[in-house]
Amino acid sequence: MAVTRAKIALDAMGGDYAPEEIVIGAIRATQELDVDIFLVGDRQAIEDCLARHPHQGLNLTIVDAEGVVEMEEDAVVVRRKPKASINVAMNLVKEKQADAVVSAGHSGAAMASALLRLGRLKGIDRPAIGTVFPTMIPGKSVIVLDVGANVDCRPKYLEQFALMGTVYSQYVLGVPEPKVGLLNIGEEPTKGNTLALQTHELLKSNPEIPFVGNAEGRDVLSGNFDVIVCDGFVGNIVLKFAEAVGEILLNIVKEELPQGWRGKLGTALLAPNLKRIKQRVDHAEHGGALLFGVDGICLISHGSSRSGSIFNAIRLAKEAVDNQVSVRINSSTSLLMERQKTEELQNI
Amino acid sequence: MAVTRAKIALDAMGGDYAPEEIVIGAIRATQELDVDIFLVGDRQAIEDCLARHPHQGLNLTIVDAEGVVEMEEDAVVVRRKPKASINVAMNLVKEKQADAVVSAGHSGAAMASALLRLGRLKGIDRPAIGTVFPTMIPGKSVIVLDVGANVDCRPKYLEQFALMGTVYSQYVLGVPEPKVGLLNIGEEPTKGNTLALQTHELLKSNPEIPFVGNAEGRDVLSGNFDVIVCDGFVGNIVLKFAEAVGEILLNIVKEELPQGWRGKLGTALLAPNLKRIKQRVDHAEHGGALLFGVDGICLISHGSSRSGSIFNAIRLAKEAVDNQVSVRINSSTSLLMERQKTEELQNI
């Protein structure tokens, strides 16, 4: 791991609980992680928050921005608001003053801003959003991409997602030989829709991708795969379903438990266990999603993020910086491009 | 509700635990439900099972069949095995001796056999598999279709799925004014892939469909919708994810609970509550999937079904028979066809 002190540009104005919860998350991150943080947004509002929370001696710098892309606005608004917090944060990365952006604001706007200001990595047609899911094997995670950036995909996009996911799994999640799967409706190579059938062939024939075959719905959580690729339509539906499941599960446990003295006593005795269950299934505990394929690290958090999620997102961003995810993806996709060029020349 | 005594053709040879668990489920169904059952399969094997379980005076009739489509065989094998249990069971419905087929065997083979022997309803291009999910609102269910029959869909297929789901919701699930949703990645009509965008328009403009808008991943379980339509690729992935989630949840609860005396005592006190949680989240408790759009009732159970699931599947089949689902879908889709014809004539 490269020894760096990651510099994070944090969109202090983005998210349902901005700037208060964002600032609290930032304070904790500078205390516990080896990071410097730029708090990007309305100086007065940020200073008011800082005044309420002890932060002396911490590496927090306020960077002025004007306005924010509101959740109900269209993503293209980023073009008309060059001084909005997300744009100023992206510029810090573009100008190499920061290593990564973290935002819990409008996710479409964050993506548009990243594309506009950072640009795509070579060899990447479409950036993808990747999210890390816990699996049923304790301590083992899986990265799923795309979970919402691209609703209509071509096979080669998914091939690129597989390459990017492999790099992330190897260098950030620390899996020496990641198993890559294609999200599909059956294990057999003959199963799936047109996109899945064509992608299967492409993944199978790419020597850079440790493709092990099709993954089914259950495999998102089974722990049998380290990387799962899918189009952003399917991925987004699975992601939102998964988020809801955690919540519903906790509700069911709550509803069913405290009835009568047995329930009350049992619940009291099990309090620490129930808390651990909550941590394992509650998606909010898990930080954010990474935007893969742009020339810089960009972490998109849930709009409902509170300080704990912001802290986790900063941690994820720092891990991506430390492990040089962008550089490694770049060299991985360069190989792909060279091979494609050679094949094209051979076909002439 | 029509007063009928439903006659069920049960594929006694289909499923991982056939024929034993199938026969046990059938015995219970004839005891507790108002049904007559044809046990279709190898007479000797079925008689051996019956001999082990008391069943005197019950309405069970064995119907001979030869062979079964094995799970690992291709679905087209149904054509080459006309006397296989699934085909003989379908024939009973075709010849009006039975009202419905229930099978826990090869689901592709069941679909192929139904298409071949029963045929499609008028106005239906593609039959769909619908499955009923419990929602987080106690007692409220949602029917999701398609969950696997059609991996590449056209907008008009989804329109037909919506019509069929509406009939089922109204007449079987007893929802007077069902809310129909389109599974998508956002609530706004402008969200989605090409299929979703086009389908949204179609659903919105069909007066027979009580369409309320897009449903997101979380809405599969939210209880905000009564019918959710999607293509069979997305639906199958969500279904298998959901099945796995129930199982994983139970594993997590088991793993986290019994540690130390607190855990053991707490678990003992909570035993009945944990059992109720299991019942609410365990997919195996919920029976099977209905094949919509063929000319007859056809219930497809999970291959791993044990007697409880078979019993539930028979109950679901009986409810569909009692509520004349096929007849009602037929009249609903006839309306659609007439409207389409009128539109075509107007366009000449």
From TrEMBL, chains A, B:
Record bears the keyword Aminoacyl-tRNA synthetase: no
E.C. numbers: 2.3.1.274
Keywords annotated in UniProt: Acyltransferase, Cytoplasm, Lipid biosynthesis, Lipid metabolism, Phospholipid biosynthesis, Phospholipid metabolism, Transferase
Reaction(s) catalysed by this chain's protein: a fatty acyl-[ACP] + phosphate = an acyl phosphate + holo-[ACP]
Pathway per the UniProt entry: Lipid metabolism; phospholipid metabolism
Gene Ontology MF term list: acyltransferase activity
Localization: Cytoplasm
Annotated InterPro entries: FA_synthesis, Phospholipid_synth_PlsX-like
Gene3D superfamilies: Isopropylmalate Dehydrogenase (3.40.718.10)
Electron transport listed as a keyword: no
Cross-referenced HAMAP family: PlsX (MF_00019)
Record note on quaternary structure: Homodimer. Probably interacts with PlsY.
Function: Catalyzes the reversible formation of acyl-phosphate (acyl-PO(4)) from acyl-[acyl-carrier-protein] (acyl-ACP). This enzyme utilizes acyl-ACP as fatty acyl donor, but not acyl-CoA.
Similarity comment: family membership: Belongs to the PlsX family.
NCBIfam families in the record: plsX
Protein name: Phosphate acyltransferase
Species this chain originates from: Synechocystis salina LEGE 00031
Record gene name: plsX
